[in-house]
Amino acid sequence: MFCDYSGEGYVCRTSVRVGLWNRVLKMSTSAWSFALFLLLRGQFCCGNDESGSKPINPCCHYPCENWGVCMRIGLDDYDCDCTRTGYYGKNCSIPEFWSRIHDLLRPNPDVVNYILTHFKWLWDIVNATRLRDWLMGLVLTVRSDLIPNPPTYNTKYDYLNWEAYSNITFYTRILPPIPQDCPAPMGVKGKPELPDPDELANKLMLRRKFRPEPRGTNLMFGFFAQHFTHQFFKTNHKIGSEFTLALGHGVDAAHIYGYSMDRQLKLRLLKDGKLKYQVIDGEVYPPTVAETDVSMIYPPHVPEEQRLAIGEDRFGLLPGLTMYATLWLQIY
Ligand SMILES: *[C@@H]1O[C@H](CO)[C@@H](O)[C@H](O)[C@H]1NC(C)=O
Ligand SMILES: *[C@@H]1O[C@H](CO)[C@@H](O)[C@H](O)[C@H]1NC(C)=O
Ligand SMILES: *[C@@H]1O[C@H](CO)[C@@H](O)[C@H](O)[C@H]1NC(C)=O
Question: Would you say the pTM of this structure is higher than 0.85?
Fold first, then answer.
């Protein structure tokens, strides 16, 4: 439960009691519905489920705005916890004084981007003066402030909690999970069944027509991004595909040296700060798995001498990632 310790702290207690009360009410209503169902069975058939049966949890409508947290009160009322959202009112929709000022002064991202990417003469002047460091610091802050930084949830709880914030093994989410007693899987709207994920992916992601990259970049950049971000966006296959293995919480060069000291020592030459390598026809490549005893994942048909040992055990599966591992041998 989300507690505001700057307030009286009674928010938590009330909510716990409300939660218990809800459970008691829900148990008794479901007992009553069952008795009624037995009684009426065969006399009336299959009317609209919603009429007469228990009221829909109002939080299924997602009434709270601006990251307010919805709490069900009794059966058909709710309360939005607007703590620290900068807004107030029944639905956290009315800005407080400072939020109003902040919203007013907040630069439009497109305008900021236009100014930063045009007026070369202006930036040349800025670059030539002592203003540069101060202004670049400001530019970075302005840019990072454009990204909203809301409190986070995880799939387990529909309220803000410390674990969702701190447990980096969970994929975090910025919207609370749908309350469990909603009529539709998306709350109150949409079909009663979620679409098949494969069908959805095909409809939304499958490319039917070749479209050249609009900024004129190439495949190497895509692979570079994948290679680099794998340091912190990495699935923890031991626990499950929904968990992230972000042990270092940032840039830790695990994509080059591996996640453990053991792996790192097997990959390093331990001389001149370089990694182990092999030379084939005068060209430098990563060493083989057999040579280094580093575990890698390759399809069964890949011959022994083509199984290259790289920091990340799945990188051998994609040519672009192997390419970067090979290129980096010149530096690392
Ligand atoms: C709060 O949201 C609900 C549902 O969206 C709406 O019916 C109600 O009018 C809103 N109340 C206020 C005070 O904005
Ligand atoms: C900014 O100034 C530095 C020298 O102070 C120069 O090396 C750099 O190329 C300049 N940057 C641009 C984009 O002109
Ligand atoms: C993080 O979440 C995982 C998965 O639910 C759990 O096994 C683990 O104990 C949690 N760790 C902490 C520090 O809460």
Answer: no
**Ligand 3, atom 10, residue with closest C-alpha:** 167
Pocket test for ligand 3, best of 167, 171, 244, 247 (most atoms within 8 A of CB): 167
Token readout for 330 is 């010149």
Instruction: In whole angstroms, give the CA distance from residue 9 to residue 83.
Output: 12
Q: Is 61 in the pocket of ligand 1 (CB under 6 A)?
A: yes
For residues 316 and 292, the answer to whether their CB atoms sit within 8 Å is no
Asked whether the beta carbons of 263 and 257 are under 8 A apart, the reply is: yes
Indicate which residue's Cα is closest to atom 6 of ligand 3. Answer: 169
H-helix or E-strand spanning residue 293: none
3-class secondary structure per residue, 202-247:
HHHHCCCCCCCCCCCCCHHHHHHHHHHHCCCCCECCCCCCCEECCC
Q: Is 215 annotated as a binding residue?
A: no
Q: How does pLDDT run across 29-77, given as a tens digit for each residue? A: 444 444 434 433 433 333 344 445 678 899 999 999 998 989 999 988 9
| CA nearest neighbour of 81 among 26, 1, 200 | 1
Which pair of structure tokens corresponds to residue 123? 């930036």
What is the crossing angle of helices 131-145 and 120-128, to 10°?
130
- Token digits of residue 252: 């830790």
Rounded Cα distance between 251 and 268, Å, is 19
Distance 92 CA to ligand 1 centre (A): 10
